[in-house]
Specification:
This protein has about 170 residues and is an alpha+beta fold. About 20% of the residues lie in helices and about 45% in strands. The protein has 4 helices and 12 strands. The chain has helices at about 1-5, 50-60, 75-80, 160-170, and strands spanning about 10-15, 15-20, 25-30, 35-40, 40-50, 60-65, 95-100, 105, 110-125, 125-140, 145-150, 150-155. The termini are far apart.
């Protein structure tokens, strides 16, 4: 369909949305995260109503938003369920901490935002999820992971590339 083809031309930052606790932990990969308001700090994203994360998010009423760096493609793939991972299995192979709300936050992400669910607006096959940001953690300064034309791409330089370029420039 031309609608989907058109939106594949729009590059989007890759985030992992995390929610739940213990055996109910789950999450998803999202490219629809957007700032809604700076005062109060609020964000939004789209979530398919048939997603296994939807009911967990509604029940726990909190979630983490983790902006992935270019080295975290495997995290994006796991949370997208590309190899069949579900629930807590999506958290394997990465380090996590808990935010103020208890939401899982990815250590090493470019930034993480711990959010309290403020409102869900259901439309068609999806929900618009609005979250009030309760905590922000800034991470590394590496390249960002973006999704464009159906694949992951890298935007920017890694920390090592920046350091190398600065050393070359100093000579």
């Amino acid at each position: 369909m031309s609608f989907r083809a058109a939106f594949r031309q729009l590059a989007g930052g890759v985030s992992v949305i995390t929610t739940g606790e213990g055996d109910t932990r789950t999450g998803l990969t999202a490219t629809s995260v957007s700032s809604l308001s700076a005062e109060p700090p609020t964000l939004m994203f789209g979530l398919n109503l048939s997603s296994s994360s939807y009911s967990v998010l509604v029940r726990h009423r909190s979630f983490g938003v983790n902006f992935l760096n270019a080295t975290q493609k495997q995290v994006a793939d796991r949370f997208a369920g590309r190899n069949g991972e579900k629930g807590p299995a999506r958290y394997a192979g990465a380090e996590w901490s808990s935010g103020l709300t208890g939401a899982p936050l990815l250590i090493g992400a470019l930034a993480t935002l711990d959010c309290e669910l403020e409102e869900i607006i259901e439309r068609h096959s999806h929900a618009i999820v609005i979250g009030r940001v309760r905590e922000v953690r800034l991470g590394g300064s590496g390249a960002a992971l973006v999704y464009w034309r159906g694949d992951y791409e890298r935007l920017g330089w890694t920390g090592d590339e920046v350091a190398s370029a600065l050393r070359l420039n100093a000579h």
